[in-house]
Amino acid sequence: MKKMKLVMIGNGMAGVRTIEELLKIQPELYEIAVFGAEPHPNYNRILLSPVLAGEQTLDEIVLNSWEWYGQNGIRLHAGKKVVQVDRVRRIVRAEDGTEEEYDRLLLCTGSNPFILPVAGKDLQGVIAYRDIADTTTMIEAAQKYRNAVVIGGGLLGLEAANGLMKRGMDVTVVHVMPWLMERQLDDVAGKLLQKSLEERGLKFAIGAHTQELVGGEDGRVKKIRFKDGSELDADLVVMAVGIRPNTELAEKAGIHCNRGIVVHDTMQTVTDARVYSVGECAAHRGIAYGLVAPLFEQAKVAANHLAQFGIGRYTGSLTSTKLKVTGIDLFSAGNFMGGEGTEEIVMSDPTGGVYKKLVIQDDKLVGACLYGDTVDGSYYFKLLREGRKIADIRDKLMFGESNLGDAGHQGQNKAACMADGDEVCGCNGVTKGTICKSIKEKGLFTLDEVRKFTKASASCGSCTGLVEQIIMFTAGGDYSAAPKKKAMCGCTEHSHQEVRDAIRSNRLVTIADTMKFMEWRTPNGCSSCRPALNYYLISTWPKEAKDDPQSRYINERSHANIQKDGTYSVIPRMWGGETTASELRRIADVVDKYRIPTVKVTGGQRIDLLGVKKEDLRDVWQDLGMPSGHAYAKALRTVKTCVGSEWCRFGTQDSTQMGKDLERALWRMYAPHKVKLAVSGCPRNCAESGIKDVGVIGVDSGWELYVGGNGGIKTEAGQFFCKVKTKEEVLEVSGAFLQLYREEGWYLERTVHYIARVGLDYVKKKVLEDHEGRKALWERLQFALDGEPDPWFEHEKAAVDTRQFTRLQTEDEGQTA
Amino acid sequence: MKGNDWTVICRVEDIPVLGARRVARERGMDVAVFRNDEDQVFALLDRCPHKGGPLSQGIVFGTSVACPLHNWTIGLDDGKARAPDEGCTQRFSCRVQDGAVMLDPVELATLALDEQPPAAGPCARHG
């Protein structure tokens, strides 16, 4: 079969990313040719600033080596500028006459710097700041000349100025607007930024209008003259006043352009479906993006269509900004200027160099501008993107939440202050230096990529916030733009919510049907989506959807907890943490009989038998004669209790009995994640009810209920939910809350995160205010749990495949079948 | 062709769809036999190249298995870890004839005999 021909014009980051995505999913479909005007392979344009500042070298910022093109069979025409696209004959022609035919054309011509139309703009020593050539010119000029003027106090201009200053030049930034970075900062933050840059040695001419550039006899620029007649010496003038989508070629080819090459959500041009455009040159719904993350999203969509998968649409991105000047922390996103109909929460400490402004509209965060302390940038950005109501967290909003956990990274919360040798990810032992190195060497841009390659934040996730900060200042400030929704996994473009909704509204009851209906890309999913789908099905359609053990993680398939040597741990259930002499005797006998190496008391008031061989599991369960503790499952684990009023001289309520009743009512309950409860008999709270998914505290007049507590990675105190009088109410409210979580939570989302996503007010409305609704939830839970088998004793009913417990023998030793 | 030299291990239906069984050997670690949803059967040493996890206990999808310990993905057909992880586990030849799953006895007796299972518990405490 003859391959189709794909030609790409422009050898930049967005375009090459499209090809990489395409090669990943359809490596054989196209014969690919690439034209690039610059005589370089694809490099990371964002990192030109660190190169200019002398923090990195040109070699370090190359993303795709010359070899990469060869290895992937791509014909690279580097240094050849395309001058003509013949859409009738489908031919592309370069300046030197090189021609390529195409079946599909990808326009990635990027953008051009805008040059001020002033006299002297063509003098020697007057340049833009856009590519490797400009950067080298600046580095060379810094060696020979003294005075530099940068026109434009935006992101790019300040980075250029900072770099030139570091190279030893005397730099003045000329900015026509009243404060720096006016498109990313408000006036207060802009002035704080100016102050700290001045302290580093930069000079500013704010509000100055450039009249002309004056040359010397050698044809090189000498001076810059302003409208008010004043002058400055200048041996180098860098214009960084903005960029324009480069649409010249497209326009000549008759492709509709309007502030960019106009494309559909599929990244095809509106004029010609054979022609795609991604990157800074493309105008999508009126916006030409200049940041890398949205462009990579576009690349993914374009690659999908080029691969003829026909799925995936680009629907726009929210973007945020961070300045890449080492040591200056600055973050902004959304509508940070505010205006009519908005409210502002401001914290300002000019002496301390900290300024934070949050803009709120209709009870939602719509913008944020942070200076000096940007730790919570990604948290605010998440709130912005999700559009969540903030009434219930408004009082705490300014103090942030950040994704940072409490444990595992020495309490650090500012990645910038960390040394290269400091550990960022305590689970996988990844240091800051390792992360920075892989970001640079492997050209990583997103959290997912960094997780994949370094494993940082890939286990417990508590260091996610730190890793995000490191990516921001290593890969470039433009990293942190994000899709509006997050796909479940690589097998689908649908989010957890969309899948849950579809399962309910379309009455999908099997994994196969769900995958078919939702157009899964893979034949039978992966280890990430299958367990999620299985849970969604059995929780949405109890007694109807069939549990699929092969789509469960091993612990839930073998009903024991796998250990690092492949043996298992067994934790029998002890109702409310109470046990008896006869239970303990049986446990002791089992330990002896099966030579179990370790016996450990757990934090959940039970006993853990560690190191049980898989072959022995069924016999161990049988001999113990105690119910499964589900310590291996995303399910109700334990209900921890204190002694309570039966014995304790301070006890006000019988917490042990309450705990036993709760545990008996809720056991065998599968959930999006593990669920832990505790009941304390008085406010001394010996059962640690404050850090449980549902925590109950007995007081003299009844019971207080707390929800969403968590003692894990990040310690989260439970939030007060309600106070009730009777035991029956405790059962009903706890059960209804957990059923709501079971029906709406995303797989692997703990109650604390579920509540953070939907808001505590919403949960209260559903469970506390709506009496009928609460009763219905409680009844649905009881219906779901009624007759549920104990997997340790009712193997068949619990769909336990018992074949897993025996090993097959080779025939000499007698075959088992 | 090796003709009659194959050892019958079990029937295809003895292995769960998208699942695995373990095969004991006289010497050396177990071999895991996997079945995908197209009734193809694959055999690998039951040991992840990462930290020695039992691949037979992993979730099978496509022609891959995810190790139950740290979720490395191993190709069932080649035993290789999927990028960006690197490593390879021993493959065993595997045939299915008239529904019978067969392994090569010579391979069973000779391949990867030195691979050690991972250790845990008190016995692993001091090296």
From the structure provided, what is the oligomeric state, counting identical versus distinct chains?
heterodimer
CATH topology of the largest domain in chain A: FAD/NAD(P)-binding domain
Give the averaged pLDDT of chain B, no decimals. Answer: 92
CATH class of the largest domain in chain A: Alpha Beta
- Helix segment tally of chain B: 1
CATH superfamily of the largest domain in chain A: FAD/NAD(P)-binding domain
Largest sheet of chain B, in brief, is: 4 strands, antiparallel
Task: Note the beta-strand portion of chain A.
Answer: 15-25%
Q: What is the SS-derived class of chain A?
A: alpha/beta
Radius of gyration of chain B (CA) equals 15 Å
Q: Considering DSSP H and I runs of 4 or more, what fraction of the residues of chain B is helical? A: under 10%
Work out the number of β strands of chain B: 10
Which regions of chain A contain 5 or more consecutive residues with pLDDT less than 50?
813-817
Percent of sequence in beta strands of chain B: 25-35%
In DSSP terms (H or I, runs of 4 or more residues), the helix count of chain A works out at 24
Q: Portion of residues in helices of chain A?
A: 25-40%
So, CATH architecture of the largest domain in chain A? 3-Layer(bba) Sandwich
How would you describe the shape of chain A?
A: globular
* Radius of gyration of chain A from CA coordinates: 31 Å
